[in-house]
Amino acid sequence: MGKRILIVGGVAGGASAAARIRRLDADASITIFERGEHVSFSNCSLPYYLSRTVEDADYLLMMTPEGFRSSYDIEVRTNSEVLSIDRESAKIRVRDRIAGKEYEESYDTLVLSPGASPIRPKSIEGVSLPHVFTVRNVNDIVNLDRYARQEGRENVAVIGGGFIGLEVAENLKEAGKHVTVVEAADQVMAPFDYDMSQILHKELLDNGVELFLGDGVKAIAEDHVTLVSGREIPADVVVLAIGVMPETALAKDAGLELGETGAIKVSADFCTSDPHIYAVGDAIEVYNSLTHRPAKLPLAGPALRQARTAADAIYGIGGTNKGVIGSCAVRVFGMNAAATGLNEKTAKANGIPCDSVYTMAMDKVGIMPGSAPVHFKLVYEVPTGRILGAQAIGTGNVDKRIDVIATMITMNGTLEDLKELELCYSPVFGTARDIVNLAALVALNVLHGVFKQVHVSDVRGLVESGACIIDVRTPEEFDEGHLKGAVNIPLGELRHRTSEIPKDRPVYLHCRTSQRSYNAIMALKGRGFDNIYNISGSFLGISYYEYFMDTVTGREKILTEYNFM
Fold first, then answer.
1. 429: which DSSP letter?
2. How far is residue 509's CA from residue 542's CA, in Å, rounded to a whole number?
3. Is 429 exposed, middle or buried (0-12, 13-18, 19+ CB in 10 A)?
């Protein structure tokens, strides 16, 4: 008789572990127990059914129980909830949710992949009303879609500005709904720094999504949501997307050790504190290789790798566990956004000395159709130059730039490595010096003191304090919009107008994307100026950084007009 292997939970972790085990062992008896109706579906694609980008809900299903049986000789029992684990007798207790019966099954090895459940805080009054939805599986998205499409249900409040929240918001807006996003933090998308998230805030506003930041939900009524601030938002439909919690009850009740994050603690090969029980996916505690701290990371990619490593370990095959760095991507209407590693905020919170550069360059040669700017932020360790993370936003292929950085981080790469990295080039795909190379060059200049910079977040304070700011763009660009109080000295006139630039106080220079102002700084350094700073992000970055807060608060602008072109 072969091994008797039971797997709790399907989707990415459980289904992948089962398939790998079958490839390793033709004789094993493998059974997957799935509490829900579907064992394998594209959970990351769920929101796209709301707009019919995914035309049919059946397209979300990846593999049926019959498919597992015919393709892998794996038994799948859906609507089967595992109630408990008896570790001493190596048995699980299962409830057939259709028949209402309970029974036991024995195992040689047990793999837990219970996933994570959407948070539904009991502290919010009305959180269990019938028009309040969460999104976890196919049935959830079908029920949400069916309810939202009924007559008179036009106002949707999405609570949470993370991946699921923004994807649900986008797709419901595309479906013709009036959508409001409420986020308790001061920005959407926590993997991004505040300065980069401003680009996404503008994109949401530009596409008709109302956005309330720094305000949580106090209560939900039949036709509105009340925020902590007292503001009431019309809402016929409410979608809770405020995060997930690892499903650990089964493991905890069985006496398995939990980690400091509250998720299931596992070894390097994803074995739990019981040598006969493994765990993978959203329910486990992972190791962040940059912070050197335990973490939770509910993403499909890591779950697939964990499943393979665990399956191999069951059969004595050694593997490697390099931890996680948190690579991710999201589309917000016309903007694509991707990030990897640590953002600046997280690096500093973990005591890692770091700095960052914010660069902009075209995603392909400018004369090519569809060429557009990429906003790119690179975070690095000081003084080593070790790459810690990056964020990129634009209408083009930002994900491939972040994939490059993810690879560099995994290989413990530095700014010098990134500077010399040889990448593919064709005018229709990119530029001869890609923005990732450019960012490395800029960061090396800052790291080694070739020039000094201030970040886009500092500019409002500079303007309000009357700092000396020089705009080196053309007079035509200046007239279309500029920082209040800035002096226009075009780059082409700079060498003849140095007498207008003070040496007894700091001078801050910018252009549109910081490239001309860099050239201006180097020219001035050659003429004895040393108290000069480049404004990282320049006028395009300033416009994006200021726009959202100016719009929603009505505060006084620090520029005459925005310029996003």
1. T
2. 13
3. middle
Q: What's the CA gap between 378 and 405, in Å, rounded?
A: 9
CA 249: distance to chain centroid? 27
Q: In Å, what is the CA distance from 195 to each residue of 102, 117, 501?
A: 54, 30, 29
When pLDDT is averaged across residues 269-293 and rounded to a whole number, the result is 97
User: Which among 181, 179, 156, 540 has a CA at the least distance from the CA of 373?
Assistant: 540
CA distances from 372 to 212, 274, 390, 402, 481 (A): 29, 53, 19, 17, 20
Q: Using DSSP, state whether 119 is helix, strand or coil.
A: coil
Nearest to 312 by CA among 282, 269, 275, 264: 269
Calculate mean pLDDT across residues 134-145.
Answer: 95
Q: Please tell me which residue in 328, 354, 468, 511 is annotated as part of the active site.
A: 511
pLDDT at 1 over 70: no
Look at residue 10 and tell me whether its pLDDT is greater than 90: no
Residue-wise pLDDT tens digits, 424-458:
999 999 999 999 999 999 999 999 999 999 999 99
For residue 302, whether the previous peptide bond is cis, meaning omega lies within 30 degrees of 0, is no
Give 26's contacts (C-beta < 8 A, 6+ positions apart): 2
C-alpha angle with apex 439: 434 to 444, nearest 5 degrees?
A: 130
How far apart (Å, rounded) are the C-alpha atoms in residues 262 and 255?
13
Residue 565 has a pLDDT of 77
Active site residue 511: yes
The CA distances from residue 25 to 73, 305, 306, 407, in Å, are 11, 19, 18, 32
Task: Kindly indicate the confidence band of residue 12, based on its pLDDT and cuts at 50, 70 and 90.
Answer: confident
Tell me how many degrees the CA angle 304-308-313 measures, rounded to the nearest 5. 145
Show the tokens assigned to 204.
């949401």
Single pTM value for the model: 0.94
CA gap 551, 557 in Å, rounded: 9
The answer to whether 321 and 122 have CB atoms below 8 angstroms apart is no
Angle ∠(259,42,75) on CA atoms, nearest 5 = 80
Looking at residue 54, its pLDDT comes to 96
Q: What are the tens digits of pLDDT across the range 54-107?
A: 999 999 998 899 999 999 999 999 999 999 999 999 999 999 999 999 999 999
DSSP 348-402: HHTT--EEEEEEEEESS-TTSTT--EEEEEEEEETTT-BEEEEEEEESS-HHHHH
